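Exercise 3.2. Students should predict the tertiary structure of the chain below and write it as structure tokens, then compare their answer with the key that follows.

Predict this chain's 3D structure.
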Amino acid sequence: MSDIIQLLPDSVANQIAAGEVVQRPASAVKELLENAIDAGAKKIQLILKDAGKALIQVIDNGCGMSVTDARMCFERHATSKVKKAEDLFAIRTMGFRGEAMASIAAIAQIEMKTRRHEDELGTMVQIEGSVVTNQEPVATPVGTSISVKNLFYNTPARRNFLKSTSAEMRHILEEFQRISLANPRIAFSLNHDGVEIHRLPASGMKQRIVHLFGNNYNQRLIPVEEETSIINIKGFIGKPEFAKKTRGEQFFFVNNRYIKDAYLNHAVSKSYEDLLPDDHFPMYVLFIDIDPGKIDVNVHPTKTEIKYLDEKSIYAILHSAVKRSIGRFNISPTIDFDQETGFSGMITHKAPEEIVPPSISFNPDFNPFAADKPSRDPAPTFPRTGNGASRDASAAIVPSTKGWGALYEVANHAETAQQTAIELPGAAVLPDDSLVPVQKQLMQLHNRYIISQIKSGLMLIDQQAAHERILYERFSRHLDDRKGASQQSLFPQTVTLSPNDFELAKSLLEDIKSLGFEVREFGKNTLIIEGIPVDLGNNNGNETQLFEHLIEGFKNSQQELKLSKRDALARSMAKNSAIKSGAVLGQQEMNTLIEQLFACQTPNFSISGKPVIQTIGLTELDKKFDK
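Answer key:
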């Protein structure tokens, strides 16, 4: 019987390694950008076509490579960073295993041009499927330009598993964000299909965060800095009021390498204890500098997990540093002298205005014992405000007589004006309760629950969960039949999103329009909102905030529950548009809410799977009273 064990050909071994190193275009982008950083580049350009599936090109002004190195870099386990086993415990560079370039070359068509400072001519190398097809001298700038074309061209099964262009682009943007955050002193640019998405100049850490996520982050950041004999910590955390329901803006870097660590994340989250709701997560960009000999970075193929020698000490230092920074922010907020109105007189050198003492006016002829009678004029009609509540009654009433009768009239009308209700989103604007025939007497408990009498006892309904269920089923129907009605905004509003959220919004645009939004692209990372769904009622001009919450809620639903795109979108809209606990409802509004709830397909359960309705029978009540 002949021997059956044999060595794999290099081309096959490289394709197997590529399965670990290159999972999608974003993986290749990460490896190429890290190589450019290790080459000492001060300016890096990333050019993409079709989200990296057609082209990934990285151009840097680093040290470049010699003729031999240009060929050797595509060999397996070829690296300039590790020469002996001890070097594995002192790694401060990004790529060090020597598999990235060989793996990428095994599944793509590559063209690389590179030149060192001391060389007059550079080298061009062309490779297809691990096979070098051409190598020749070429005139090229100092540094390296590498183009990866037709990724997975020779492994069609892997290519078929790639997601849509927008989905793959979001993964690339995530990798780009992590690498550019870790290296603020390097200038980066990102172009996709001829459109410039990012142009990041060399800057400080805070400026890099603002350039990546938007100018509004300039006021959201709190600095963190701590130096100890074990680790050094620096970076920024977000103010508690700007926390989000998704974890997308949380970055840990150990020795400038992005990592994922639930243990350290818990240390930061615990620092915000009692400041945030349970379902909100703070933003942070934190850098930990530690002796490389005290960590192991080669734990995971993607190198995003690290082992530490002294985890508990690192946890305690990180927790105390973040908590102290939050305390400093709360105790001594910064003063912006350009905006602080209290100093405006000092800044402009204007004389202070003359202080006028308060004066008291009275009627010397007033007699409280005069025989005035309450006015019999009909009560005035108070105009509605945007949220459906009446305006201040006392401001609308002008007494026609003097004395106690006038005071009685004001008090009587003020008491009547308080018996008003709010507008229920998704329902028509309702008149005052006194003008509506009561269908069934209902009661609101602590502005959270609706109590109704039934034959067997009483029924409790969670008003927020009930309205979420109603809107969820309504929006789901709109997404299915694509007939969501829209109401035009008087003043269209623009919303500027982060590049990640903008790509997500573009992929959802058709479904968002099906809900009733009128939205279109309006420049770089910007959308213009010209209409909102009729089901949302009067939104008081907060279209921008509503749209941002919609995107944030969609990301949260997909992350936590792994829902389909349409289901997650309907769920996000329902949660953000429903009335909340604490909203005052009138009799007609409660009746309308109950009627719409029992018309739903699943009225008993909320969209989170929790009960909406609870009943208490007479028998149970009798037991409470020992009957």
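Discussion points: The CA atoms of residues 135 and 466 lie 69 Å apart. The longest helix spans residues 311-331.
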